[in-house]
Amino acid sequence: MTTLSGFYPPAQPSGFDALLITVGRWLVTTGERLAAQEHAMLNHSAHEERLRDGAALRHSGLWH
Hints:
Layout: H1 2-5, H2 16-60
């Protein structure tokens, strides 16, 4: 049975099923991209906070 199934190409969705699959893939890709950007923005803002805190310490005279 497996030998015969190897001869046929896999079925391709069409119509509404193909539309749902395309929209689903787009949603996943967009969500992953937004999550990556959010993660990068969080890291960047934390870095800016550390720089600002260091500058404030140096300015206050507590930095030796």
